[in-house]
Amino acid sequence: MTVARRERLRRGASAALDICVVAAAYYGSAKLGLLQQLVRGQVTPLWPPTGIALASLLLRGPRVWPGIALGALLANVTLGPSPPAVLAIVVGNTLAPVCSYALLRRVGFRVELARLRDVLALIFLGAFTGMLVSSTIGSGTLALAGVVGAHGFWPTWSVWWTGDAMGVLVVTPVLLVLRSARLPKEAPPARWVEGFLLVAATACVGVVASASAPLLFLGFPLLIWAAFRFQLAGAAPCALAVSTFAIVAAARGSGPFAGHDLLTNMITLQAFNGSSALTALLVAAAVSERNQAHQEISRACGYLAEMVDKIAAGGYQATLPLSVGSVDAVDETDTDGEKKKVRAKEENKRGERGGRTGRAV
C-alpha cells in the first residue's frame, strides 16, 4: 500500500467520522429542542441543530454537509406528514446552514469572533438571513401538505425562523468558544470566585424568570458583566442560558408571555433573545478589540522605549559617525579629484603656449 493511498484512506475515514459525529449531534440536539415544541410537535422557538450545523461547517468545512442532511432526516422522519414533505423539510434544514456558511465565508468571517464585524456577520447573515431558507421551505411544505392552514402559515413561519435563528445566535458562539477553550493556569483565586458568582447569579435569574413575574430583564446586567470580564468565553454561555430561560417562559406562557397569542409571543421572544444575543456578543467583541488594541500599543511603546535606551547608552554612536565620515570622505575625494583635473588642464595649456613661443624664436 503506497503512502498516497494510505493518506487518502485516512482522510476518507476522518471525513466519515466527522459526518457521523455531526449527524449524531444534530439528532440528539433535535430531540432536546422538540421538548419545547409549539407547532405540530416539530416547530420550536429554539432549534439547537442549526447552531450545531453551522458550527460544524465553520470548523470542519463543507464536507460535513451529509451529516447535517442525515441528522435532519433522522429527526424528521417520524414527524413529517408524508415522505415527500419530510424530504422537502430535510432539504430546507440542510440548505439553510450551508447558505449561512457561504455568506459568512464571503465576507471573510473568522471563527474567533474577536472582531465586531464577525459578530455582526454572524447575527445578520448567519442567523437572520440564512435561516430564511429553512423557515420558508418548512412552513411552505406544511401548508402545501394541508397540515397548517392559510391562517396559520405566518405564525408557523415566525416560530420556525425564530427557532432556527436563535439556534445560530446562542449555540454557534458557544461551540466556537469550546473549540479553543483552555483552563487558565495562572488565574488568581479572585478570578475563579468571580466566575462562580456569575454562574450562581445566572441560575438565580433563571429561577426568578420562570416565575409568573416578568423579570427576564434581570439577565441583561449578567450579560454585560460576563462580556466585560470574560469576553466571548463568558458572554456566549450566559446568552445561551438567558435565552433558554426566556424560551421556557414562552412555552409555559408565564411572565411577559402570559395572555398573548402565538405570533405575539414569538415576536416578543425573538426581540428579547435577539437583544440579549446582540448585547452579549457585541459588547464581548468590542472589549476584545479594545484589549487587542491596548496590547499592540503596549508592544509599540515597549519597542520605542528599548530603542531610546539603546540610543542613550551609545549603542548607535559607532554607526552614525562612520556613515557621516564616509560621506565626508567621499565628498573630499571628489573635491580633490576635481582640483587635480583643473591643475592638469592648466599645465597642458602652459606647455602648449611654451612650445609655440620656442618655434617663433
TrEMBL record:
Region described as Disordered: spans on this chain: 329-361
UniProt superkingdom: Bacteria
Signal peptide segment: none
Cell membrane listed as a keyword: yes
Domain MASE1 per the UniProt entry, residue ranges: 23-290
Composition bias, Basic and acidic residues: 336-355
Keywords: Cell membrane, Membrane, Transmembrane, Transmembrane helix
Name by which UniProt lists this protein: MASE1 domain-containing protein
Membrane-topology annotation of the record: Multi-pass membrane protein
